[in-house]
Design a protein that fits this description.
Radius of gyration: 31 Å
Strand content: 35-45%
Shape: globular
Structural class: mainly beta
Largest sheet: 7 strands, mixed
Number of strands: 44
């Protein structure tokens, strides 16, 4: 069971039938002084650091050449203490200090100030705390033609977000990311058009899987508004503007989070830059994973005392008025409850019960969960969801988290996924009974896979021997060994049929057609739907039949699942052997674009990896020796990431890959010919535990 505290996600997306003021409010922190400006608060451990132009003390006043108080970095141990006097950090720079970030150990600061090397331009400086004293700041990003400002650490602190108007951007100030290496910033990349625009983007910050920043791209393009973008599989999704009361008609910027989950930002809504806290009126909610309610069962009796003769027969009485003849019966109960299921021996002539062979109490209980009834897989981005039944209450509200940064409120939801992948939809009902508030949360995974994707046919690369699997079965339960998915088979054939064939024309308007190949019987199978239970396919089944595909039938597909604890040395060696049989992926010179000739090999690799869901794969990429070593290292990392991204599109989670780039440091042959250089431009795979 996953325990989630609703926090910044409440901002994102479009609410329907809900008052935002009911969910949260903003208030200026007590420490913020109306006579001065405070902004860019950074919450580290129990301390709050921020930028201000206030006096360092009643005696000392630090000013610039125009006798204006210098902006600097201040420290206070309690941001909500009105009488607490902040301390100015003794940074050795007689200039205004602007936006900054500080490391978790509070000993490393990157900050913005005017460049000493290039007057009139902003630069990013670095200072280190050594023996309780801050070192002389060093310019780490500066240029005579461009500005660099607004640094902020990534969560791991091995990368730095920052802002620049350097060439190659989308216009104005863009947000970039670079790796921190030996007090320098390398491998710099623009965050792209989902974040950056022709207007100014400022003050990036990162929390969990969300990127926050401010931009002038909305309204009259004069004021900064705070935006958020979900980072999914290393890519920034479409950004959303946070609604009122966070954003206002004035500048709102520099969002940050404390270790206890509280959020702060800066706003000019009261005439000066002040720090505000976001307060929530929302309960802590527990989410349990949705479990399909199983009401369909197969009944059979193996210890019958009476044989089915000309005199007697067997009859199942299901306890809900339904009866079946014979020793076996399949039945679906309409509702939850306690049922008395009887197997009777019936006199064929009189039709009366001669003997009760067996009697069972059969209890069907609905899980304490919201009824999330939607497919496991959707083929169109736009989906419609509705809760037909919720917990009865005096009053209640329903909230939906779509897993991509969007939230909604109400019984009905329409949502459009923009990017393929697997998402976790979370639904929460807050309800009141007799003046007491309750909350229930339920989550369910959904996969969005576009309909227009070409279907790939993959033959099994490698299958463990039957004896090998039997040895494993001796130590594992059936649930450990197999996983079953239910598909609707439209047709099977020994001849391959293209999924664009006119035979599938009607069906392809509604569903993605998957093509499979079974090497055991050398047959191709064409299916639609992919569910965890057969009953979840009923709507797909009915629609397919109505379109004229009368041979359609539900089939189950079993997958071998090996747990990590049973992945012994022999298995690892076996998997390793299979991986090295993958033909090499060879790149063109100075390119990380995967050649189309390698697509089929990667599809085979994806099929293989899916058979062992507990293992991880190391992807190692290499280059030839053409070009500079540092650029070759970056190129190899891009090649390895390109392979991981391709496999991710085959619905393999990126967390299962360890991506490494070695540049030209590990050639397998001498780089003395075009042929040998081509061999060194390669990608290798290795199983890790």
């Amino acid at each position: 069971m996953e325990r989630i505290l609703f926090s910044i996600f409440l901002f994102i997306g479009i609410y329907s039938n809900a008052q935002l003021s009911d969910l949260y409010k903003v208030s200026k922190v007590a420490m913020s002084d109306n006579d001065f400006s405070e902004y860019n608060v950074q919450l580290v451990n129990d301390n709050a650091y921020f930028i201000s132009n206030r006096n360092a003390s009643q005696i000392t006043k630090i000013t610039d050449m125009q006798n204006q108080e210098l902006y600097g970095i201040f420290l206070v141990s309690n941001i909500n203490a009105a009488l607490k006097t902040p301390t100015r950090l003794p940074i050795k720079l007689d200039r205004h200090i602007g936006s900054f970030c500080i490391s978790k150990d509070e000993n490393n600061i990157f900050f913005t100030s005017e460049s000493l090397s290039y007057p009139g331009k902003f630069a990013i400086y670095n200072t280190i705390k050594e023996k309780s004293e801050w070192s002389k700041p060093k310019e780490v990003l500066s240029n005579q033609n461009f500005n660099y400002l607004d640094p902020n650490f990534s969560i791991s602190e091995d990368s730095l977000f920052f802002v620049s108007d350097a060439n190659g951007g989308l216009g104005g100030l863009d947000i970039y990311i670079g790796k921190v290496s030996n007090k320098s910033i390398v491998s710099i990349a623009n965050l792209g058009e989902n974040i950056n625009t022709i207007y100014d983007e400022r003050y990036p910050s990162f929390s969990e899987n969300l990127l926050f920043y401010s931009s002038k791209k909305s309204g009259n393009h004069q004021n900064l508004d705070i935006f958020s973008s979900l980072i999914k599989e290393g890519k920034a999704m479409t950004a959303f503007k946070l609604p009122y009361p966070v954003n206002s008609e004035f500048d709102d910027f520099a969002l940050s989070r404390s270790k206890d989950g509280k959020w702060y930002f800066t706003s000019a809504r009261n005439g000066s830059d002040d720090i505000y806290e976001i307060n929530y009126n929302f309960p802590v909610t527990e989410y349990s994973n949705f479990k399909p309610v199983e009401r369909c069962f197969e009944f059979y009796e193996t210890n019958a005392d009476f044989e089915d003769t000309t005199l007697f027969t067997f009859q199942w009485n299901m306890g809900d008025g339904t009866k079946y003849w014979g020793l076996e019966a399949k039945h679906c109960f309409a509702d939850s409850g306690l049922y008395i299921v009887d197997l009777n021996v019936v006199d064929k002539q009189s039709k009366e019960v001669f003997y009760n062979q067996a009697s069972y109490e059969f209890l069907i209980e609905d899980a304490y969960q919201l009824p999330l009834v939607f497919p496991d897989t959707v083929n169109q981005g736009m989906i419609k969801l509705k809760l037909e039944k919720v917990f009865e209450a005096d009053s209640s509200k329903i909230y939906w988290d779509m897993g991509d940064g969007n939230l909604y409120a109400g019984l009905d939801v329409e949502h459009n996924y923009s990017t393929e992948g697997e998402y976790v939809i979370k639904v929460n009902q807050n309800y009141y009974n007799n003046g007491q508030m309750f909350a229930i949360g339920t989550s369910k995974n959904i996969i969005y896979k576009k309909m227009n994707d070409s279907s790939q046919t993959s033959k099994l690369l490698y299958a463990p021997s039957e004896n090998y699997l039997n040895n494993i079965k001796e130590t594992l339960t059936q649930d450990d060994i197999t996983k079953i998915k239910y598909l609707l088979e439209v047709i099977s054939s020994t001849e391959e049929i293209d999924v664009s064939d006119e035979y599938f024309e009607k069906l392809s308007e509604y569903y993605l057609i998957e093509k499979h190949y079974d090497s055991r019987n050398e047959k191709y199978s064409y299916t639609v739907g992919n569910e965890n239970s057969a009953t979840a396919l009923y709507d797909v089944y009915s629609k397919t039949k109505s379109l004229g595909y009368q041979d359609a039938k539900v089939v189950d597909k079993k997958f071998i699942v090996l747990t990590l604890q049973d992945l012994d040395t022999v298995q690892a060696a076996t998997l390793e052997y299979a991986l090295i049989k993958i033909p090499e992926i060879l790149f063109a010179s100075n390119s990380y674009k995967i050649p189309e000739s390698s697509f089929n090999n990667l599809n085979l690799l994806a099929d293989f990896i899916k058979r062992f869901p507990e293992i991880k794969i190391e992807i190692s990429a290499h280059t030839d020796n053409v070009g500079r070593e540092d650029k070759n290292l970056i190129l190899s990392e891009l090649r390895a990431q390109a392979i991981a991204d391709y496999l991710n599109k085959q619905f393999i989670n990126l967390s299962r890959f360890i991506v490494k780039g070695f540049g030209d440091s590990k050639p397998i042959v001498a780089n003395d010919s075009d042929e040998n250089k081509s061999m060194n431009r390669r990608v290798e795979f290795r199983v890790t535990k």
